[in-house]
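Below is how a single chain appears once it has passed through the pipeline. First comes the sequence as given, then the structure the pipeline wrote out for it. We keep one example in the README because the format questions we get most often are answered faster by looking than by reading.
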Amino acid sequence: MYEILTGNTPEKWEEIKTHPFYAKDREMLISAGEEYLKNPPKALLWSDYSRFMRDGDRKCYEKIYFDRRRRVAYLAILTKLYGEKYLDALCDTMWLIMDESTWVVPAHMADMLGDADKRITHLDLFSTETGALLAETYHILGDIIPKQVSDRLVSMVKERTIDPFFRYHYWWMNGENNWASVCVSQIALCIMYLGTPEDFRRAEPEFNRIMNLFLSSYGKDGCCLEGLGYWSYGFGTFLNYADAVKNYSSNVNCLNRFERGLSSEKIEKAHNLQTGVIDYFTRDDVKKAAVFSSAMRLNGDYAVCFSDASEKYRYPRSHFYVINKHYPGLLAYPDVSLSTYSISAGSHNIIRYFLWSDPDAEYGEKLKNGTMYYEEGQWFIRNCDKYSIAAKGGHNNEPHNHNDIGTFMMTTQEEIILCDTGSGEYTRQYFDNRYRYDYLVNSSRGHSLPIVNGNYQSMGTPKAEVTEHTDSVFELNIKDSYKDPTLKSLSRRYECSDNKVILTDSFEFFKKPDSIIERFVSFTEPREVNGEVFVGKNSQIVFDKAQFDLSVSAEEYSGHGAAPMKLYFIDFKHRDPLEKEKAVFEIVIL
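Resulting structure:
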């Protein structure tokens, strides 16, 4: 039988079991396994589920929900490596998952819970992930799983994942975001593992259509506007699909297309009509998107965290492996300590973390100096010896949108000097536009941006106009991001040298403004010494003391995963703003 899952060979599993490269990973696995043997999964309670409807809380239910799925992944690997010691615990957990009234999390079920059919057939990110995880576990372990368990598993994956795809239309089937990729990738894996070739031939044109929508969201330059975590999740699951479907179509004829009346121009470049192989890695847009994760790394191993992303740089080892498999040498591996199985929820990627890895690869790639500019996303990223800066234009109606046109962040080897807040705590209200911009992290109030006549930026405002970008200069017009009728123009200019960034904001009003505040934000408490402002260990914001009044304040908020966070505001208020104003700040690395 041909192998769909790259790396699923006896030789690779033996390497994982014995090679010194995996020693710490094996310790982690065994420690988790022993914990699971002593403590079975917790119950999923109605009171936990209903928290989302009552007060918007997601973590109470999802913590237990995701723990169950991580258990399956860890216990599946342990069973494959060490045998039956962990088999009962694995089967118990899968049985509990199969007993769940729905595989859909409360945040994605909303008012459908009372509909018995929709509880079973609704397809979201995590119901499809559950199906793929169970199908892949069965694929890896096969007859090791007792027949009663495997029979039920196959039946339920078909009932809850495969059959609904053919019966219903879901909103994400027309979505240009990570949902399209995640749901399709995982449904496709379920069909490849448990369905028939005819099932796949029937589904593949729709898979292709939806994947094209997803890839179009990256544009021609490969920029993921949803941020690094969603590159890992959305593009990462696309990589899982692209690798699997290349393996699958190398052995199964999947191009039964013309009998459905599709014209030749609808056949994608990835589909080789002579060989029948479906190879997305032949596409230029896929190759450009593959580089995105590497480009997000900043000094200090921090990350560009625009949108709902994390400020800590971590790279998914399995993604880098499969990218280099298809594009040899495209990505260099940073230090092993920065690798992770996933930046996001995807629990079945734990399996790929082991299978898709190369103990003989060269790890420890240092950050290289240079400038990366994403034309369509309007992201400017510059790394040099002393600091990194990332600034953005864009628009205020992006996926996982923050009102942040013109914002920036800076890091050194030691710390983040000026930050982007990244993601806040996911709640019901966080994804409701009636409340989203009341959250500090989503409002321009929580970004390094001007406050004009007391106004913050507005949601839905159009794309910035970039007027200049070079290796060391980034300038853009951000006037339209403020719905202030008195504002005639507002440009922001970044000029980068070896040890400082000069930021210049140029304002023009139709009449004398009431107030202009230049705000900078930091996770680090700034120090005011004799009227000078220092941030962190070795940086200073130099400003005209005659032009501005300085004030420093702070606000606490709930970060991603409900982590308590504090953000410091460094506000420079123009003392007597005129119709034409220019504000110049030097952010100096001392």
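The CA atoms of residues 28 and 74 lie 10 Å apart.

See the next section for the split statistics.
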